């Protein structure tokens, strides 16, 4: 997870991008992520967050 101060408006997660010699980590809003090839635990966390947002919950 990204640092707390970066998550006040939206939950951010750190995403690792690897391709060839490129290895980069960047932050992305969890509500914008749609999993393609992730483990069950990660898919559940993303689905839970989409549900949380869709019902209007806030921090």
Automatic annotation (TrEMBL):
This is Calcium binding protein from Anabaena CcbP.
